[in-house]
Amino acid sequence: MNPIDPNAEWLEADGLGGFTSGTVSGIRSRRYHALLLTATTPPAGRIVLVNGFDAWVATPRGTFAISSQRYGPDVIHPDGASRIESFEHEPWPRWRYKIDDDLIIEQELFVPKGESAIFISWRVVAGIDDAGQPGSPTPATADVRLRVRPFLSGRDFHSTHHENSSCRFDAEQNGERVTFRTYDGVPAVIVYSNGQYAHEPTWYRNFLYSEELARGLDAVEDLASLGVFQFSLSENPAVLMLAAEGHAITDIESIEARHAQVRTIEQARRKYFSTPLERAADGYLVNRGKGKTLIAGYPWFGDWGRDTFIALRGLCIATGHLEEARDILLQWSDTVSRGMLPNRFPDQGEQPEFNSVDASLWYIIAVNDYLLAARKQPTLTDGCHTKKLSAAVEAILAGYNGGTRFGIRADRDGLLSAGERGQQLTWMDARVDGREITPRIGKPVEIQALWLNALAVGAKFSARWETLFKKGRVAFESKFWNEHAGYLVDVIDCDHQPGVVDLTFRPNQIFAIGGLPLMLLSKGKARYVVDAVEMLLLTPLGLRSLAPGEGGYAQHYEGDSRARDSVYHQGTVWPWLIGPFVEAWVRVHGANAAARKKARARFLPPLDEHLNHAGLGHVSEICDAEAPHTPRGCPFQAWSLGELLRLERSVLA
Which of 76, 250, 426, 459 is deepest in the core (most CB within 10 A)? Predict the structure, then answer.
C-alpha cells in the first residue's frame, strides 16, 4: 500500500475559481479546506458553502468513524483517520478505510470541470485479493450502513464562521433532492443523494485549523450541521452530490445515473492530458467573463497579472494548449491602461490594481512565446487576433516610453526607471506596517532585462523600438556589471539618484541570462553570474531570494503575518526561479543536448520528489531558505508548476 503523509494536501478545482481541498488524513488544517467552495462571480466572490463532513459506518460489530476533525485546544475526534489504509490522488482523491479484516470502505470524490459541484461516493470493498482487487462478499458485508453529516457555513473563504442566531437551519426536501440555505444572499446548497435524509439540526463548535494557528490567523470556527444522510452500503454504493445554486446543473432525475455519467465524462477528460503534471496545470485555468485567466495559487490567491503571464508560458504554451493561451492573452489585452496591465483583480470586485511595473512586460514575453508557438499550428494564425495582441504590445511600450504611473518611464540611457515611495512595483513586493521591505526604486536589474526583451519583441512589429533597444542594451552591461564582485548589481540609480547602486546579492540578475528570450551578457560574464547564483542561492527546490550573509537574511519563513511578510523576499526560497536558473545554466554550459541532459538529471529530481509532498502533484509557492527547505505559502502555485513544465517541455526538451 502507498505510504501516507497525513498532512499532504489535495486539490480539485472547478474551472470557475472555486475548488475542493483537504488533507490526506481528512483533518481540515486550513480555513480554506472545504468540500464546496464556489466563486459567485467567477473567478472571484468566493464563498465556502460546505466545509466538510463526518461519516460513520455501522455494522453488526459496531459503529466506526471514517472521518476525523481537529477541535480546540488540540483534540482529534472521531478516530476515522486511524483507519485509512491507502490514499491515491490520481485521477482524483480516493481513500480506503479498513474497518476490520473483512471490510474495507472506499471513498472517492471529484469535481466536474465547469460546475460548482462535487460528487462523493462510498462503496464496500469485501476483502482484497492478492492482485489488490475486491474479493468475494462475506457475512461482514451483509449489513453495512453509512451516515454522513455535512458541516455548512456560507462565509467568505478568507474568514471563519461562528455560532449566530441568523443562520437558518431549515431544509427543503423533494425526492432525492434536499436544499439548504444558511443565509439570505448566499447561494443555496443543493444536495442529491441515493440515501435518506434525517433533519437533525445542531451546531458543531470549536473546530481548530492548525495551519492558520501557525500563521497567526483566526484558527477557530463553528459550523452548522442541518442533518444526516443515511445509506445502505450492502445494497448499492452511496452517492452524494453537493452543488451551489445557480452554478451547476441541479435538475436531476436520478443521482446514480447522473453520477455514473459525469464520472465517465470526467475520467475521459482527465485521460486527455498526457501527464499528471499537465493535468494539474489545467486546474489553474478558469473563466473570467467570456474569456479565460489563470488563478495564481490555491487556496488563497486570485488571478494576478504578473503571475498569470509567467505561469502561462509553462502551463499553456509549453504544453501545447495554445487556444487557452490565446484566450487568456486576448482577455487581458482589453485591460491595458496607460501602458499598464492590472496586477490584481480584488476578490470582492473592487477596481483593478495597477501596481506592477513588470506585469505588462511579462505580458509581452508571453505574447511572443505564443506567437512563435502558433506558427506551427496554422489554424491559430488569425490575423485579427495577432493584430489585437500586437496593439496591446504597442500600447504597453508607448505608455512606458512616454511615462506612466509611479514614475515608470524610459530614461535617456534607454533603460526603464520606476518607483516611488509607498509602492512596491516589482515581484519583491512585501510591506510591513506601511513600510516596503524591498522598495527597489530606480532601475532594478530584472526590470531592465524584461524591458529590453520587450523592446526586442516590439521591434518585430514596429522598427521604432529598435534604436531604444540598442541604446538600452549597451547601457545595461556597462552600468549593471560589477567587475570587482563578478556579478550584476540588483538596482542602479537607487531612489532615482544617478550612480547610486544596491549591491545586495539577489536572484533577480539571473533574468539577464535565463528565463527570457535574450541573453544580455557576454558568455564569460554570464558564466560568472550563473556560478555565483549557484553557489549562494541555489537549493534543491529553487533559488533563495537573498544570499546568506546579507543583512536581514532569514533562514525560515514562519510566525504571524507581520513576521512572515518581513522575510518573504529575505532568503525565502522561490521554486518558480528554478526555471530561469536552469535555462541560464544550460546556456552557459553549451546550450546543447549534453547540457540539457545533465541539467535534467541534476536539477529536476528534487522537484519531482516534491510533487509527492505538500500540495500533491503540484509545486509550492515558497520554501524555507535552509534545510530541510520546508514548503511554505500556497501549496498549489501556478508559476512554480508552470516553470517546471516549461523546463520539461521546452528548455530541456
Answer: 426
